[in-house]
Amino acid sequence: MDHKLTLYNTLSRKKELFEPINPPHVGMYVCGPTVYGDAHLGHARPAITFDLVFRYLRHLGYKVRYVRNITDVGHLENDADEGEDKIAKKARLEQLEPMEVVQYYTDRYHRDMDQLNVLSPSIEPRASGHIIEQIEMIEKIFDSDLAYESEGSVYFDVEKYNKQYHYGKLSGRVLDDLMANTRDLEGQDEKRNPYDFALWKKAQPEHIMRWPSRWSKGFPGWHLECSAMSARYLGERFDIHGGGMDLLFPHHESEIAQSVAANGIDPVKYWLHNNMITINGQKMGKSLGNFITLGEFFSGTHKSLSKAYSPMTIRFFILQAHYRSTLDFSNDALLAAEKGLDRLMKAWATLAKLVPQEKSSVEVNLLRENCFAAMNDDFNSPIVIANLFEGVRIINSVNDKKESLSADDLSQLRDTFNTFIGEILGLKQEETSSGNDASLEGLMNLVLDLRKNAKTAKDFTTADKIRDELTKIGISVKDTKDGATWNLE
Fold it and tell me: 180 pLDDT exceeds 80?
């Protein structure tokens, strides 16, 4: 079958035929998490979206180098050029080294991704491990006369860049509008223009994470890390750059400007952005305080949830919507996803037990073709799922002796389900241990609540006894500003 994959390119604002720069090799870079807290549903969507892309490209025979970064420095509060580093702030509050915070939440992120059956990327670089590359890139931007130093910090000159290129071409922004709508923020008197963005920030005395440079002891700007690391591992121009729609501006817009200024070439051929998860029509995220962590989904402990939901239910819920569509969260939607997934997985299990007949009374060739057509049309997972449910109807009808399948057709249907459910959509039969894990999570939350109540009542003897007894059975408890957390030793 000749697969002509089309994908929606945010840069061109239209669907384009996928033609890699250097086939069969494909370079794909996706912005990963800033690791200062537990992953929530908003983190799961880009991870699952680009896992789907990764899986399908590999299925088509491409050799994919998938780079997903970890942001562990330079991401300041409110995504601005001022304020405290999010990880450094967490470290200060918890009286930890910043890299302790990074390691702790990176490990938990990996655990959550494993439960969601998200494949590991080919390379997972950290921003703090590529300071040299970022400083070298700033020097190249200076060489192009598009960077300037101010009081030990370095900024990108957006206005000068825009005279030569187009700042705003990815997001559709116009610089004049940015100039009119950019509000003055504290500390922006260092900049020539308020919409200029930091390439390097001089560290204030209280700033924990800092590195030496010729401008100051400081740290790189948030946007710079992805430009430097993508060029390091994928080259100055590569095939696909992905991430959430919230990163389109200013993060990805600034990436383009930095890369063009440093290397004289547009860095990315295809830009892909997944849309947001909303709750009551509002974006779900940490900054808004309306997020639900993946651990809370798996344990059912959040007040918005009526029960615990398995990782595969969460994955199926996300795949039921096209990645460019807004996905609105509700408990009812999760219940519906759980029921749909159960039907699909039961039919898949039944399919393995069906006995072939002499001839078929139902057509299955079109089902397979329709699934591939949907994936080739900008990774349209909901249409794939709709076609698989037509397969569910066929399976149940054959199982009830109302229809029949020949050996060849039965083999093809099994291959279709194995390929699309397991290999491409990344769904798998839930292990019984996942239910036990959810029960343990719920039980531990109850125990920690009892300990919290004891501490509130100043009954420290009971609180310490709970902690000590848990330690004896291999469960460590750690008190943090946001409450106690636990881990199996």
Answer: no
pTM of the model: 0.86
Q: At what angle do helices 311-319 and 381-399 cross, to 10 degrees?
A: 120
Name the helix (H) or strand (E) containing 275.
Answer: none
Q: Please, are residues 100 and 32 in contact by the beta-carbon 8 Å criterion?
A: no
Residue 167 near residue 196 (C-beta atoms within 8 A): no
Contact 404, 359 (CB under 8 A): yes
Confidence at 19, pLDDT banded by 50, 70, 90: very high
More confident residue, 435 or 267: 267
Give domain 6-274's CATH number out of 3.40.50.620, 2.40.10.340, 2.40.100.20, 3.40.50.80. Answer: 3.40.50.620
pLDDT for 434 beyond 60: no
CATH fold of 279-424, please? Isoleucyl-tRNA Synthetase; Domain 1 (1.10.730)
Residue 481 has pLDDT above 70, yes or no: no
Rounded CA-CA distance 417/202 in Å is 55
